[in-house]
Structures are given as structure tokens and as C-alpha cells.
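Office hours follow-up: a student asked to see two folded examples consecutively, so here they are.
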Amino acid sequence: MDFTIEHLRQMLDQKKISAVELTQDYLDRIRKYDDVLKSYITVTPEQAISDAKKAQEKIDAGKAGMLCGIPFAIKDNICTDGVRTTCASKMLEDFIPPYNATVMEKLISQDIVMLGKASMDEFAMGGSTQTSAFAKTRNPYNTE
């Protein structure tokens, strides 16, 4: 299946799938594979479904922008209001920001669906998650 944003947008607009169904498919895959892959530090299923329902209302009204209803993982160094943001560091393990980063505000204004916070190297100092305080992310094509 073609999982480009453009293709997902077409599927949503043509009512081949709803934003909630699409989001649930992603959440099911996270639940099925992330114990091994470790690609998320925090998963936000309730928020994702809520975001998807709001997006579907805009889709149904014919007012959907390009990103409306599209599921996203947000890197864990992007502040997300009310959602744990650790920067993959034990020092920030329990930090819950009281605001959104500007980039998050821009994504929210486009009605994206946030699935959760993606793993990363501590404070984004690297590119392999080897310095994450929580887990090393595995390659889905070769988990070794």
C-alpha cells in the first residue's frame, strides 16, 4: 500500500477510509510492533482518536487541508501541551509542558492526528537512538 501523505489524503477525501479508521490502523501497528521496535517513548491513543474525530468533521464538511486527519509521530524534543516530553532523557522523564512548541501549533492548525512522541537520542545529540535514556530503536527490516 502507498502510505504517502498524498495517497492518504486521497483515501480520506474519497471516503475509502475514515480518519478514525486510519488512526486506529496506526495505533494497532504501534501496539503490535513497538515492544520490539521501540520507536515511541510515549503513545497517545486517546488523544489520537479525539484528533481523528475532529479531523473527520472537517473532512465531512469538505474543509480538510492537506494534513487534516493524517497521523503523525512527533519527535520527543517538541513540546506538546499536556503530553510528556522527555527529550529521551531521564532528567526530563516526567516533564509535561504547559504549552506547545510553535511547530506543534502549526501542525495542530492543520488538524493533524498526533499518535505520540517518537524516540530519539538524548537531547537530539545523535542519529541512532544509542544515547536514548529509554530504549534503542530497532530497524523494522532487521531488528538485530
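And the second, which I mentioned at the end of office hours:
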Amino acid sequence: MGDEDVWNVSLAASDARLYITHMDNVPHASITRHVMRGRLASRGVVNYDMPADGESIVY
């Protein structure tokens, strides 16, 4: 999913917490965590977590 897809999900499920994973782990990945964060910020998306490589989220 690209930033537009994540934005659309955030609009459709505004009360949900989104978990953005599998970033920067494929040599041909088209978007990095840094770029994704910037694009989501410009779209006003704040209801997400994006764990670093190897990081776990406990909820």
C-alpha cells in the first residue's frame, strides 16, 4: 500500500489505529519509512504506528 491507500483507509476507519509494516525491507521497495511519514503528515494522517525493523508492538 502506498500513502494514498493508507490515507483512504484512515478516512474510512477514522477510529482505527493503523499499523504500517514491512517498510524498507525489500531492495526494490518504492517508498521508505521516512518518505511515508512525510506523505502521511502532509495528508494529516496521525492514527498510525510504524515500527522499526525488529521492533514489536504490544497491545
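Two things to take away from it. The radius of gyration is 11 Å. Residues 3-49 form one domain.
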